[in-house]
Amino acid sequence: MRPATEEIARAASKLLVANGLHGHRYAIDAMLAATAHLEHGDVTVVTSDVDDLRRLCHRRIAVERI
C-alpha cells in the first residue's frame, strides 16, 4: 500500500495521455499502474479489469485477473 501522492497522480496523468485515455473510467487504473511502476523487482497487479491495466502497465508488471 502506498499513499496517493502528487508524484503518482502526475505519473498516472502521463500514462493516460500516452495511451490516449481520459476520464474517470481510467483514473483509478492509471493510479494503480503508476504505483506499480514505482515498485522494484517482480510486481503483480491483481484486478478484474485486466485489459485496461495491461495497456497502462509496463511489460515487467504482471497483470492477473482476480
Question: Can you give a write-up of this model?
Answer:
By secondary structure, the protein is of the alpha+beta class. The chain has one domain. It is built from 3 helices and 2 strands, in the order H-H-E-H-E. It has helices at residues 6-18, 24-38, 50-56, and strands at residues 43-47, 61-65. The chain has a two-stranded parallel sheet with strand order 1-2. Helix 3 links the parallel strand 1 and strand 2. It is globular and about 25 Å long. The two termini are 18 Å apart.
Describe the structure concisely for a colleague:
This protein has 66 residues and is an alpha+beta fold. It has three helices and two strands.
Short descriptors:
single chain; 66 residues; alpha+beta; two-stranded parallel ribbon; 3 helices; 2 strands; globular
Shape field: globular
What composes the largest sheet? 2 strands, parallel
Strand order of the largest sheet: 1-2
Which structural category fits the helices and strands?
alpha+beta
Helix content: 40-55%
Mean residue pLDDT:
94
Total tally of structural domains: 1
The separation of the N and C termini measures: 18 Å
CA gyration radius, whole angstroms:
11 Å
Task: Please report which band the strand proportion falls in: under 5%, 5-15%, 15-25%, 25-35%, 35-45% or over 45%.
Answer: 15-25%
Total strands: the figure is 2
Q: In DSSP terms, counting alpha (H) and pi (I) runs of 4 or more, how many helices?
A: 3
